Every structure is written in C-alpha cells, then in structure tokens.
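pasting for the record
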Amino acid sequence: MKFTNVPIDQYEKYSALFDKDYCSRTFVDSAFTYKLVPLQVDNLDEPSAALLDFKFAIVYTGDVQSLSKDDIQSILPERKIVAGESEQWKSKLLEFFEGKVVERRRTRMSHQSLNLEKLEDLRKPLPDGFTLERIDRETAKNLPEILGIHIPILYGSVDKFMDNGIGFIVKDGDTPVSMASSTLPYTNLLEMQVSTVDNSEYRRKGYGTAACIEMISYCLKNDIEPNWEAANDRSVAMALKLGYTNPIDIFQYYWKNE
C-alpha cells in the first residue's frame, strides 16, 4: 500500500477519517489545527486509509488486517509506536514480528472531576529561593533535556512552543527543577506533560505537583481540557492526587529487532 502526503491546504478534506478515537483527541485535533504533522492517505480522491505521522508514533485509520509486512515496515518503522485499534495492531504485528513486539501500557484518566477548590487545597508554599512561574522564552531555550525533550520533537522549535504551547516551571534560583506543560500544540484540548530533573535533591519533593496545580488551574480558568495519559503507576498516583479519576489502561505497540 502506497501512501501520499496531503498538501497542508487540503488537510480539512480528510479530517472526518479520524472521527473515531484512535488515540487521544488532543493529538488529532492538534495535527489538524497546526498542520505541523505530516498527513498521508492511500488515495487522494477516495481514501480508505490515512495516517498522521508524529515522529515517535503514528495515528492510523483504516483496515489493519490487509496490510502486508512491507506496508507495516514502511509506515511503522522499528521503534515507532502505533496508537489506536490496539488489538488489531497487536495481532498484525505478531503475525510478522513475533518475538519482537513490545507492548506499552498507558493509563487514561478522566478530567471531569477536576476543580479549582481541590487544587487550591493541595497548594503548599515552596521553600525559600524557589519560584513557580509561567515559562518564558529564555528559560525554554535553556531547559535540561529531561524537561524539554518534547519541544523539538513535537513543536519543532522553542519559538513554536512559545507560540502554540504553555508551561509552568519550578526553579531553584535560576535552575529549572520541574515543569508541567502541554505535550504538543494545544487547542481547547491539552495533553499534560510533567517531569522533574533527575536529582535526589529535587525528586519526590512535590515540585512536579506544584507545577501541575498551576498548569491545571490555568486550564480550568481558560476552558481548556487538561487530559492526562499516565506512563506508569507513579504518574497515575499523581493524577489521582490532583483530582483525576477513572483510570483505564490502554496499550500501544511497536516492534524492534533487539
């Protein structure tokens, strides 16, 4: 199956192909709003399959079972994650890559019960010398990799992050310690990203929680839906503490030769 890139000015013609929740709606809506992600279809006139090619993952819509091994290796190279229709993809990947398929668990959380009063109750004063602020351009340019790794991957540049993203950061003096931000360019939907520098002086001290409280509060005050997809049990626990509910496990797959 051969896929063709869709010209940016024609994206909207194909948006209905992604009406199903093949992955978090934040990714689909972001892709069609900002057009920073390549959109490919199998036929420009009468498409039956389409994909959004995020650098680390694809969002695919269409028949999975008819894909050949060559098709899969073309649209889903080694280590790239596929989002959506997980059982179909699991079956298809096992058909061609048995013993090389990796399953990644994620946990979706409901934001429906979030409220400002609970968030305010969770707030705690930061230690002397620490600040919590909205990230500015200069800070974004000098983030440690663990805090800003998603910016070049999903925004393309710091300038695009400042234009189309948002983040709140805890600093120890001038040193960035922890940040909560939008994972990718957001619309009225936002995917939460939170990380803390890998230093025992800063980890498990509540700095990530403080940044998240500020971030979620901003979203609620501005009619933005702050979605949370946890990568591990610690992330689930943090989300529950902040007021998210109803954790549901979902699974994503990729293949690798090692």
